Amino acid sequence: MKRHYLPPLLLLSQLPLIAIAIAKQNDAQPIERITTTASRVEALSTQLPVIISVLNEAQLNAIAPTHIEEAMQRVAGANIQRGNGQEYLPALRSPVLSGAGACGGLLTLEDGIALRAAGFCNINELFEAHSEMAQRIEVLKGPGSALYGSNAVHGVINVITPDTTQDGGLIGLDYGSFGYNRYKLRAGHDMGSSGLGINASITDDSGYRDDESVKQQKVNLRHRYNNSDLALTSGLTYTHLDQQTAGFITGLKSYKDESIAQQNFDPDAFRKARSLRVWSNATWQLNDDTLSTTVYLRNQSMDFFKHFLPGTPLEYNSQTGVGLQSLYQHQLEDNIKLNFGLDGEYTRADFLQSQNKPTQGSAFLVATVPQGKHYDYDVNATLYAPFASVDLQLNDWLVTLGARYEHMQYDYTNNMLAGRTKEDGTECGFGGCRYSRPASTKNNFSNLSPKLGVSYQYTVNNLLYANFSRGYRAPQAAELYQLQRQQNTTNLSAEIANNAEFGLKGVYQNSRYNLSVYAMSKHHTIYRDSDFFTVNNGSSRHRGIELELEHALTSTWSVNFAASYAKHSYTNEQILNNINIKDNDVDTAPRKIANLDLTWQAFNNANVALQWHHVGRYYTDPENLHSYDGHDILSLRAQWQITNNLALAARIINLTDTAYAERADYTSFTGDRYFPGRPRNAMISATYSW
């Protein structure tokens, strides 16, 4: 038997023993963990037949993340690969997602509202959530709820901002290596039945690599009004990012050469992004029933220098939209709860890609990548989605059954000449231009996603669960309308994922744990083939086991452990470089990822934590001919509550100064390429609260 199969099989073999051992304990109080991601209203996640990982405010304060990747290391099954600045590529029970529409495989929210409109995601969109000053981050794994439709294929990441409408607040300063500064403010005023507050941060990071920097500002405003029957909460989030970007370095293991790792071979690259979300939620308590509605307005725009493409064009994109979320919970019987609602959204999006200078390079590139506009289009998108579910409580059993129907329509208008000509209509050499513009059209997508979950609470604090669900994502606008070469139209359908999951979760003596095993199959995967056509015939298989464990070793020592072992493989026939990739590992999908935090409570108001983060070896191409060895990073953190109001914290990341790559990749054009990880770096923080 191959060695890499032993860890999951050994753990699986222990599941019955674990269940028996836990069942023998004498439970006292039921566990309580609040979530809003599972039901849109605050509720206990105890008996739900899904796994929701929660990073609470105390954990986030201890981590003091400069990037959400640093926090997500504590979530089993997550693998956020940081690029440069605030950029990243995400993975959650998946390989790292990349490509024009791959961001549609993961739904990202702030306070329950999608950061981007369905159909117009951005792979880096979590930089528009205020994760640096969040109250908590909730991660729902897999397509586990009828509340979420398109994009919630591999899961949901929901950043919850704090309720600042109570009295109190804080001011803070973070100061770190390579010119990192962050200023924080939180303040609120409670007026009884109403309140008003602000949560803001300003970040200035001059960066480790040459000619890179990040200037970022984020602010949340919150207003609250409540009486005996109605709770009305309104919020505003504004973010602004001004980033000078450093791109890949190339050459086998070049990240180990400090002189190369620090260089920036794309000094003109930049990203400028703005986002605004305004929302208002009204929740009525009607006897035992609950009605919740949220209306929101979303506006975003971004200027992006595509330094990685021939001709280095500029991209300008924007979107403005309005939406509604609704949920009615009706207690039909003491043991039967009905949930149903309607979500709707209208979005106007614009896209322009233009090249200001002639292309440099081979005669082929010069001839086929022309100066001028490549794409210029706008899309009016309409989405509506009714959903319903029922929760049936039968003694220690909970059965949840639900479904969501979602209809998406794109009304696309091409503002240029259709086809693969230059902007003025003249032909390119070598058979035609690289970029192809489809004629104006409409596209419609409808999908039904059923969900079934069962949990059995065999002791007060512990349960077994299973769920079976289907996830999907409609094709993104970029996949439909940014075509290349001879393709002038697409015939795409939604990506479909069928998921089955089993697990245990609960509290046993001094431990809180989640243990889950999942199997997912994806069909109709959208990708760009070797002819540069956007096609819909990919498929893949995803199998994994995950463990999250919080355990108190003694009264002063504790551990927090998160680990996953997963295999993500291609199941479609595709020939690349004379190799059939079927059954190969999907590229950029490490099988083993683990994180361990060992914390020592030195005395009542101070603690020290040592972190070990492990990323296993993974292939960097679909042919499985090239790979990255993986890495192990140690970090040290300390917190000291000097007075009731004043706290100090310090951290050293990459304690042993290991040379590693945040992201490794291979292409036939560049060979091995990397985003190098930062060398040893430190940060100190001071916070005054009242």
Which features would summarize this protein structure in a list?
mainly beta; disordered N terminus; 690 residues; Maltoporin, Chain A; globular
CATH homologous superfamily name?
A: TonB-dependent receptor, beta-barrel domain
CATH A-level architecture: Beta Barrel
> How large is the radius of gyration?
25 Å
What is the first-to-last residue Cα distance? 59 Å
Low-confidence stretches: 1-30
Overall CATH class: Mainly Beta
Mean pLDDT: 92
Helix content: under 10%
Structure description:
The protein is mainly beta and 690 residues long. It has one domain: Maltoporin, Chain A (Beta Barrel). 6% of the residues lie in helices and 55% in strands. It has a 22-stranded antiparallel beta barrel. A five-stranded mixed beta sheet has the order 3-8-9-6-7. The radius of gyration is 25 Å and the shape is globular.
Write the layout of secondary structure elements.
Blueprint: H1 6-13, H2 15-23, E1 34-35, E2 43-44, E3 52-55, H3 57-63, H4 68-72, E4 81-82, E5 88-89, E6 107-110, E7 113-114, E8 136-141, E9 155-160, E10 168-176, E11 180-190, E12 194-205, E13 213-226, E14 230-244, E15 249-250, H5 258-261, E16 270-286, E17 289-305, E18 314-333, E19 336-355, H6 363-368, E20 372-394, E21 397-414, E22 435-436, E23 441-459, E24 462-473, H7 477-481, E25 483-484, E26 495-508, E27 511-528, E28 534-552, E29 557-570, E30 575-576, E31 579-580, E32 592-603, E33 606-615, E34 618-619, E35 627-628, E36 631-641, E37 646-653, E38 661-667, E39 671-676, E40 681-689
Keywords: Cell outer membrane, Ion transport, Iron, Iron transport, Membrane, Signal, TonB box, Transmembrane, Transmembrane beta strand, Transport
GO biological process, one term: iron ion transport
Signal peptide: 1-23
